[in-house]
Design a protein that fits this description.
411 residues, alpha/beta, eight-stranded parallel sheet, six-stranded antiparallel sheet, 32% helix, 18% strand, globular, binds alpha-D-galactopyranose, glycoprotein, Melibiase/NAGA_C
Length: 411
């Protein structure tokens, strides 16, 4: 992936247009002031699923130990400083029944100290805690759900525990219940007075597209939302997500902005399904899609190469760009090379030259004109993965206005 910055600032007319766009976006966004850039952190689901067998597998089961361990890794291995702050519990954390007062309670064997103690610990390490609920009779894994009548009580419970993010899933609920419950939870979370980032799975349960999904409304009530199916530990799964997001980018791209993000699901880098180049590709694609960077991998045993990809500073800086404009696929070549572009602040752009070919590394040549860059200026180009940078002047050498780049993401 490359970042190209144009020397010189925006022309004044552009600056004005941008300011207007920002004001409009603000008026429409959820006003809890959170997630001004895509949330970053760790989420248990893809890697650890609903493994509750702590007797046979104490290291990997969904228990407080797993979250204490991951909090330590986030705090001690350089993640927190890079912005990976959220440590998020997913399904299967609770007891199979609510308590006598109708309150959700964690499984007493697996979370003996309770969620409040875990939250306190996470906070003491400079991190934030996320939790999972489901707007329905049951969670997807069969644990007690948050039916519409329980929304306020559960919001209060999460706030009392000191939770900082809620993922609200949508299994076992009807279209009508979702239409009532998701906005109701937004209000209930705000009413607690605790800042809680709100992640909604609602659109994923309604096909992810208008007219069933109203992205204007979503931006008003949710900080992020799952649009599409679950990621699995495979390259096919990553590609199917990228294909769906690209096919529908005209709808999805304008929906994202500071405080409200599309969520193509977790980063699976560090697990078993992706090669090194595929891992780099997922990181670049999620970055340019302005996606939340929620890793789901075992940070206790992660390989140095996966860690290096996830800890790439320039990549994270691009993902966290303050303008918060989601990128788009701008070129789709017949020979299986695609180009993605994300506009960044300070007149910079992030570009991905993405080869989906399966034969061999491929030399891709393109032009500034094709990528819609004016050729009357000097560019500073930086390769995000190698770190090398160079100046590019389209008129030098004369007659050769071609930007020749070697595809980075060949498999
Ligand atoms: C759904 C969600 C996943 C995960 C599981 C938990 O499938 O989309 O991300 O939360 O439920 O059961």
């Amino acid at each position: 992936m490359r970042r190209a910055a144009r020397a010189g600032g925006l022309p004044p007319a552009w600056g004005l247009a941008l300011a207007w766009a920002l004001i409009l976006a603000r008026a429409q966004a959820l006003e809890n002031g959170l997630a001004r850039t895509p949330p970053m952190g760790w989420l248990a689901w893809e890697r650890f699923r609903c493994n509750i067998d702590c007797e046979a597998d104490p290291q990997n089961c969904i228990s407080e130990k797993l979250f204490f361990d991951m909090a330590d890794r986030l705090a001690e291995d350089g993640w927190r400083e890079l912005g990976y702050k959220y440590i998020n519990i997913d399904d299967c954390w609770s007891a199979k029944q609510r308590d006598g007062a109708g309150q959700l309670v964690p499984d007493p064997k697996r979370f003996p100290r309770g969620i409040k103690a875990l939250a306190d610990y996470v906070h003491s390490r400079g991190l934030k805690l996320g939790i999972y609920g489901d707007l329905g009779t049951l969670t997807c894994g069969g644990y007690p759900g948050t039916t519409v009548d329980c929304v306020e009580q559960d919001a209060q419970t999460f706030a009392q525990w000191g939770v900082d993010m809620l993922k609200l899933d949508g299994c076992y609920s009807s279209e009508e219940e979702q239409a009532e419950g998701y906005p109701k939870m937004a209000k209930a979370l705000n009413a607690t007075g605790r800042p809680i980032v709100y992640s909604c799975s609602w659109p994923a349960y309604q096909g992810g597209l208008p007219p069933k999904v109203n992205y204007t409304l979503l931006a008003e009530i949710c900080n992020l939302w799952r649009n599409y199916g679950d990621i699995e530990d495979s390259w096919d799964s990553v590609l199917s997500i990228v294909d769906w997001f690209s096919a529908h980018q005209d709808v999805l791209q304008p929906a994202a902005g500071p405080g409200h993000w599309n969520d193509p699901d977790m980063l699976i880098i560090g697990n078993f399904g992706l090669s090194y180049e595929q891992s780099r590709s997922q990181m670049a694609l999620w970055t340019v899609m302005a996606a939340p960077l929620l890793m789901s991998t075992d940070l206790r045993t992660i390989s140095p190469s996966a860690k290096e990809i996830l800890q790439n500073r320039l990549m994270i800086q691009i993902n966290q760009d303050p303008l918060g404009i989601q990128g788009r696929r701008i070129v789709k070549e017949k020979f299986h090379v695609e180009v993605f572009l994300r506009p960044l602040s300070q007149a910079a752009s992030a570009l991905i030259f993405f080869s989906r070919r399966t034969d061999m590394p491929f030399r891709y040549t393109t032009s500034l004109a094709k990528l819609n860059f004016p050729d009357n200026t000097v560019y500073e180009v930086q390769d995000v993965y190698s770190g090398s940078s160079w100046r590019y002047h389209p008129h030098l050498p004369p007659g050769k206005c071609m930007l020749s780049v070697h595809g980075l993401d060949e498999q």
